[in-house]
Amino acid sequence: MGDLHKAADHYQNALALDPDSADTLNNLAILRAIQGDYDKARSLLEMAMASSPDRWEAFYYMAGIYARQNKVAESIEWLKRSFDRGFDNWNLLKTDKNMENIRNMN
Question: CA-CA to 43 of 20 to 30 Å: which in 37, 64, 66, 89?
Answer without folding.
Answer: 89
